[in-house]
Design brief:
single chain; 5-stranded parallel sheet; binds iron/sulfur cluster; 5 strands; alpha/beta
């Protein structure tokens, strides 16, 4: 806690595009009451100071390197509350696409060319695979209203809850015409709600960025799948953009050569 009684907050980023932090910056610009309520001690996207004394840590991005694990554990040791910020931190998100490539070495060569041995990386993981997480803000990028609500709950000492029902519920409440009825494809029946069904509302099928609901086999949306002639299993097989992280995947041993 700062001497002024405000909780100290820090933002960290690992493998990601930093789009969720940008959403935070954008949100804070129009919600100055939140900036007033806390003392931000570290936030690379917005300031140069790097304070290491904080109670609340927001972590964006996936764990993709051995040194990420050490840093994540340091943050966990310091922070009373750790919040996973966005799909990369929550479910490994688009970073996990590399996990399903036949060879992690090929991935590194593709990205880093002949300098691939300079950059040790392994299959992407959500931060919860390394440290305990107290709250999650899903999405790619995060939803600003959900960010505000979760921050308020954390500051009030409450355990933040996120929806555990499918996007279809929000979509139907908005009286959208179903994407399946328009001949398209949508992952709404098995994806966690909370984004106000923004994609289907604008005529695009959900891509699953908020992750799976806890029990997609028992949700009430099976009729949507049946109408489209799909099983839950076939639907889940299409969750390739954001939901391919597999906790059972082993970390491929590093292949490193001396740096030039
Ligand atoms: S969740 Fe999406 S927007 Fe956020 S950091 Fe990852 S890729 Fe970027
Ligand atoms: S399948 Fe997609 S478009 Fe259809 S109701 Fe569900 S969320 Fe809406
Ligand atoms: S509609 Fe689907 S892909 Fe789009 S923001 Fe919501 S959960 Fe993510």
């Amino acid at each position: 806690m700062a001497s002024n009684g405000k909780p100290k907050v820090a933002f960290f980023d690992f493998a990601c595009c930093e789009g969720c932090q940008l959403t935070v910056v954008d949100t804070l610009q129009t919600h100055l009451e939140l900036v007033e309520a806390v003392e931000i001690v570290q936030f690379r996207e917005a300031m140069t100071e790097k304070g290491e004394d904080y109670q609340i840590a927001f972590i964006e991005g996936s764990c993709t390197r051995p040194e990420d694990e050490e840093r994540l554990r340091q943050i966990r040791e310091q922070a009373d509350i750790v919040v996973a910020l966005g799909a990369c931190a929550h479910i490994a998100g688009v970073n996990a696409l590399k996990n399903i490539q036949p060879s992690q070495q090929d991935v590194r060569e593709y990205v880093y060319g002949d300098k691939w041995t300079w950059y040790d990386t392994y299959p992407a993981r959500p931060i919860e695979a390394v440290i305990e997480v107290d709250a999650v803000i899903p999405g790619c990028p995060i939803d600003r209203n959900e960010f505000l609500n979760i921050v308020k709950m954390v500051l009030l000492g409450k355990k933040p809850a996120i929806p555990d029902y499918p996007v279809c519920v929000e979509c139907k409440l908005k009286e959208n015409v179903c994407i399946f009825d328009k001949g398209g494809f949508c992952l709404g029946p098995i994806t966690r709600a909370g984004c106000d069904a923004i994609y289907p509302t604008y005529g695009v099928g959900c891509l699953g960025c908020r992750g799976l609901i806890s029990n997609p086999n028992e949700n009430a949306m099976k009729d949507v799948l049946m109408k489209a002639g799909l099983t839950v299993e076939e639907m889940m097989a299409r969750m390739t953009l954001f939901n391919v992280y597999d906790p059972a995947q082993t970390l491929e041993p590093e292949v490193s050569e001396p740096k030039e």
